[in-house]
Amino acid sequence: MRAGHIDRVKRRALRQAVTENLETIRGLPPRGVRPNVRLGRLWLRRVSLIIVPLTLAGSTFLLSKPVVEPMFVVQRAIPHKAGTPPTQMQLMQYEKVDPAVLPLSVRRVVIDAGHGGTDPGTALPTLSEKAVTLDIATRLRKLLLQSGFEVISTRENDQQIPLRERAHIANASASDIFVSIHVNSIVDHTNEHGVETYYLGPTRDAKLTKLAAEENRESGYSLADMRKLLDGIYADARRDESQRLANTVQSQLYGGLRNADPGLQNWGVKRAPFLVLVATEMPAILAEVGCMSNEKEVAMLHKPEYRDRIARALFDGIRAYALEKR
Amino acid sequence: MADSEVLHVGIDLGTSRSAISASNGERFVVDSFVGWPVDMVAKKVLKRNVMIGHEAVANRTMLDLHRPLERGLLKEGSDKDVEAVRELLRHLLRLVGVDGNASNVRAVVGVPAAALRTNKQYLRNTMKGIVDSLMIVSEPFAVAYGLDALLHTLIIDIGAGTTDFCVMKGRYPTEEDQRTLTIAGDSIDGHLLKLINERYPQANVTLFMARDWKEKHSFVNTPPDKVVVTAPVNGVPTQFDITNEMRAACETLLPPTVETMLDLLSRVEPEFQERVRSNIILSGGGGLIRGLPEALQDALKQVGGGKVTYMQDPVFVGSDGGLALALDAPDTDWEKLSA
C-alpha cells in the first residue's frame, strides 16, 4: 500500500475515532440506533394526529350523553366507503379505543432461546444455560406447531445470535408475540429458586438494572443509549399487551411447575429494560424459567421431563393469551 | 516535565497488566494490582500507604489487594476499585515522568472491542483530574493503527480478561467488525488450577502460581517439553508433571477463537476474504501460547488457508498504537476531548 494511501486511511479512521469519542461525551446513542429513534419519534408524532382527534371526539360524545357501558370498549365502528375519509359525524360515533382490540389474534410466535454459541449464559460444569434454553425452546416449538401456531425460532442450534439480530428476525417475520427463554442465576441466594417473567419497562431496582446490563452486554448498546430509545417506547400501547402476556405466562409457569417442585417461589411479573424486548416490535416477554444457582433446581433441569414441563407451562401461557385475544 | 510541554501517552489498561508508552520515549508495564496495608502493623512493615503492580502481588498477605479491572473494564460499584484504578493510572503516569500535574497530558486509552458507551463514560469520569485530555478507542483498533494495518487485516488480541477480534476495513471499526470473548488468559488460569487440584489434591497451589506457570509454559497441541513445576505438599516442595493439564487448559481457548475468527472472516466482502485471511495478527499476552498461531493456521485450511502473524512485542503493541493515535490527533481535536 502506498504511504499516501495509508495516511488517508489513518486520517479517516482517526477522525472517526474522535467523532465516536465526542458522541460518547455528549451521551448520544450509537449511530445504528439513531434512525430508529427518529422514526419512533416521527411515528409518535403522526399517531398523535390520529389519536388526539379521536380522543377529543370520543370525550365530546361521552360528555353529551350518560355513560351506560363500561369505558374502553369499542361499541361499533360505522363503516364508510373505502377511499373516503370518515366524516366528523362518523368520528363522533367512536368511543375510546381499547388497545386490546388492536392485536386481533395470535397466530405467529417467535421463540427466542437465550444465549448460544460462544455465549453460554450461566455455565456450570455439567449444564449450560444456552443448552437448557435451546432444549425448552425446541420442545415449546413442537407444542405450538401441533396446536396450529406458526413458529419462528431465533436459533435452532448452538449458535451465537446477537440481540439485535434476534430482534431483526422477529420484526422481519411480522410475528404476533415474542417469547424469550432464559434461566436465572442468583449467586448470592443459592438456597432460593423461583420463576419470573419480564416485560419491557423502566425499573428502579438496582439488581434488575444490573441483570439487564448483563443480558444486554453483547448488544453494543449501553443502558444510557437504551434510555433514549425507551423514551419513545415506554408510552407504547405494546407495553400493555406485553404486560398481559407476561401475567398470563407467569401464572401458567408457576402453576405448572410448583406441583413438580413444591419449593418453587413465584417471583412475579417485573419490568426491566432488556434490549431484546426494546427492539422487538410486537408484545414481548422474557421468561426466567428456573434458577441455575440452586442445586436442587439444577438437578431438575437435568431431567428431560422437567424441561418438558417447563415447555408445556410456557405453551399453556401462550395459548391462554391467544385465546383471550380471539 | 516542564509546564509548557505536552506529553502524549498511549495506555493499554489491561485486566492483568497495564502498559504505557509516552512521547518522551519512556515505556513501562505494571501488573494491574493495587493494594493498601490492611492495618497499622502492615503499614509499619511496608512503610508505604499504597503498593502497585508486582510489589503489591508480592506483599499481598499484608494488603487489601484490588484488581480493579474485570474483563478489560473498570469494575463498577466499588469506591475502592475506582480509587485503585486511579492509583494505577497515576502510577503509570509517574513512571513516564508526570509529577502529579494533569495539565498537558493527552492520553489515548484502549478498551475491549465490546465496551459499551456507558463503560467508556465511566472510564472518562474516573480519569478526570488525572489527564488533561482523553480519547478512548477499541484496543484492537489501537493495535492496528500502531502497525499501519488498518485495511484488510484481522486483529486477534488475547488479553487476560478478554479476547478481542477486529476486522480492519480502512475505517474506525463498527460493532459488526468486532467481537469480544471472555474466554482469555484468566479463564485459562482458572481452568488450569481446577485441573491441577483434581489430579493432585494434595498439592497446595494458588491461582497466582497457576498464572505464573501458564506464562512460562503455555502451549497447545504438541508440548515442546514436559511441564514440571514445584508446589508444596504439607510444606515440603514437591515436583508435579502438569503437561496434560497445561495443554487442556490452554486448548479451551481454541474452539471459541477459531469459531469467532471464521465467523468474522465469513462476513468480510468475498473479494477481500483471501487478503484478510493472509493478514491475521495475533497480539496480547495470550499470543505467547506456543503453537497457537500454527493451530489457528490449521483451522484456516478449511476455508482456503491463511497466515497468522504473532507480534514479537505484545506487551507494548497496544500502548504504542495508542501513542501513535495521540500524536496524530490534531490539537483542535484534543481541545474538544478534555477529560
Write up this protein.
The complex is a heterodimer of chains A (326) and B (339). Helix content of chain A is 50%, strand content 13%. Chain A is built from 11 helices and 6 strands. In chain A, helix 2 (34-64) packs parallel to helix 7, helix 4 crosses helix 11 and helix 8 (238-257) crosses helix 11 (304-325). Mean pLDDT of chain A is 73; it is low at 33-104, 220-225 and 231-235. Chain B is of the alpha/beta class and 339 residues long. Among the domains of chain B are: 7-143 and 316-336, ATPase, nucleotide binding domain (Nucleotidyltransferase, domain 5, 2-Layer Sandwich), CATH 3.30.420; 185-251, Nucleotidyltransferase, domain 5. Chain B has helices at 40-46, 54-58, 79-95, 117-126, 139-146, 185-199, 207-217, 243-251, 254-266, 273-277, 292-300, 317-328, 331-336; strands at 7-12, 17-22, 27-31, 34-37, 51-52, 63-66, 69-70, 73-74, 105-111, 133-138, 151-158, 163-169, 178-181, 228-233, 236-241, 280-283, 308-310. Chain B has a 5-stranded mixed sheet. In chain B, strands 13-12-11-16-17 form a 5-stranded mixed sheet, with helices on both faces. Chain A binds chain B through residues 1, 6, 9-14, 16-18, 20-22, 24-25, 27, 29-32, 117-118, 160, 213, 217-218, 220-225, and chain B through 114, 116-121, 124, 135-137, 141, 145, 148, 150-151, 170-172, 174-175, 181, 183, 256, 259-260, 263, 325, 328-329, 333, 336-337.
CATH architecture of the domain at 7-143 and 316-336 in chain B: 2-Layer Sandwich
Name the pair of protein chains with the most residues at their interface, and give those residue counts. A-B, 33 and 33 residues
CATH-derived architecture of the largest domain in chain A: 3-Layer(aba) Sandwich
Helical percentage of chain B = 25-40%
Order of helices and strands of chain B: EEEEHEHEEEHEHEHEEEHHEEHHHEHEHH
End-to-end Cα distance of chain A: 65 Å
Main sheet: strands, sense, barrel of chain A: 6 strands, mixed
The neighbouring-strand order within the major sheet of chain B is 3-2-1-9-10
CATH topology title of the domain at 7-143 and 316-336 in chain B: Nucleotidyltransferase, domain 5
Per the principal axes of the C-alpha atoms, what is the gross shape of chain B? flat
Give the radius of gyration of chain A: 23 Å
**Strand content bin of chain A:** 5-15%
Count of helical stretches of chain A: 11
Broad CATH class of the largest domain in chain A = Alpha Beta
- Fourth CATH level, the homologous superfamily of the largest domain in chain A: Zn-dependent exopeptidases
Rg of chain B is 21 Å
Gap from first CA to last CA of chain B: 20 Å
Total discrete domains of chain A: 2
Q: What would you call the shape of chain A?
A: globular
Would you identify the regions of chain B where 5 or more consecutive residues have pLDDT less than 50?
none
Number of H/I helices of chain B: 13
